[in-house]
Amino acid sequence: MTETQPEAQPEPRQGGTAVVFPGMGPFRFTDVGEFLLTNPHARRRLAIADEVVGYSVFDRYRQSDAEEEGQYAEHTQIAFLTVCLSLADWAEETLGERPELCAGPSFGQRAAVTYAGSLPFEETVRLTAELARCEEEYFRQEHRDAVTHCVIHTPEERLREALAELDDEGEWHDISGYIDRGFYLVSLREPVLDRFKKRIGELGGYNMYTMWPPVHAPAFSALRRKAEEEVLGSFEVADPRLPIVADASGALLTAADGVRTMLLDTFDHPIRWPDMVETMRGRGITKVCIAGPDNLFGRVTCTGENFEVVAIDARKAMRPRVRQRSARRARR
Questions:
Q1: Residue 241 has what DSSP assignment?
Q2: Is 245 helix (H, G, I), strand (E, B) or coil?
Q3: Burial 137-150 (b: 16+ CB within 10 A, else e)
Q4: 5 pLDDT exceeds 60?
Q5: Cα separation of 174 and 216, whole Å?
Q6: Are 103 and 283 contacting, i.e. CB atoms less than 8 angstroms apart?
Q7: Which one of 33, 105, 310, 327 has the fewest CB atoms closer than 10 angstroms to its CB?
């Protein structure tokens, strides 16, 4: 039996930059539609995505958004992936950003593995489409009433109190995400959600949004096995050219096996953003560029306290920029 060798770690450099691809939350076609239609990076990537899936991602996303459905549908996931990577392309070309490492909590790991070179974009589109179908099939049969709920301003001892009350009732629950102090993702059954939300409020916490399908719960180990056997097994994951911070552990990944494990951990391991922050700090990162629609990871306290945060969003990319030569003339 041979021992597994630890991954070689690059030397840290102070003053470095990381690109972070956010997890997927609700985002509107009206916020990114013009960017997808006009930005050359987005147009190029959309053409590739359309060829992979055999339909117009842009048209399906526009239609489902107009009908207020398909929030996490296959085509919406692909549109989100395309927006995030295209914004990273734009930031490199226009802003000259050259990150030392990348990270992608939750769904953002799909963009991260592509940006880092572990999977070509066309393969990540195929992976995203196939995993979306895999999850939909799984949740039609298992954990059909499970959701993932987001709570903030809830100290851990107060959250544990609310969860202990669910235990007393024999109700299943899992913590699916550690986002910041007092900020958690909790998976539980939808029939007890209203009562849980009421209890969080009584304990001084605050309820945010609820997600379906549910995510990152240890109870979903069967989904992990299904995804590995039916989907991920057919993909060749390469060593990343850029180190990736794993979202379930904060480990710095430099080899293909670690990246593959990260892609599977997302199904049954909670995400740990504070651990990711600590890893980036330890590698000398002082600036993070959040590439994509984000109302969460770039805004929480532990991010702002530790980094200069640069939001790379569609609005910024659509804003006219003065050419450098013209700017120099203006200063004269």
A1: S
A2: strand
A3: ebbeeebeebbbbb
A4: no
A5: 9
A6: no
A7: 327
DSSP-assigned states of every residue in 102-170: EE--TTHHHHHHHHTTSS-HHHHHHHHHHHHHHHHHHHHHSSTTEEEEEEES--HHHHHHHHHHHHHTT
For 272, the 3-state DSSP assignment is strand
Helix (H) or strand (E) holding 59: helix 57-66
Query: CB under 8 Å to 260, separation ≥6 — which residues?
Result: 232, 237
Are 289 and 17 in contact, with CB atoms under 8 Å apart? yes
Strand-by-strand arrangement of the 101-103 sheet: 252-253, 244-245, 101-103, 16-20, 285-291, 308-312
* Closest C-alpha among 230, 37, 43 to residue 131: 230
φ, ψ at 288 (rounded to 5°) = -120, 135
| Residue 170 Rama label (left phi>0; alpha psi -120 to 50; beta) | left
- CB-based contacts of 327: which residues, under 8 Å, 6+ apart? none
pLDDT in tens, 153-209: 999 999 999 999 999 999 999 999 999 999 999 999 999 999 999 999 999 999 998
Cα distance between residue 86 and residue 73, in whole Å: 20
Query: Does the predicted TM-score (pTM) go above 0.85?
Result: yes
Tokens describing residue 51: 């060829």
Give the strands of the sheet with 206-211, arranged side by side.
206-211, 146-152, 183-189, 173-180, 271-272
| Residues present in the chain in total | 332
- Cα–Cα distance for residue pair 95/106, rounded to 1 Å: 26
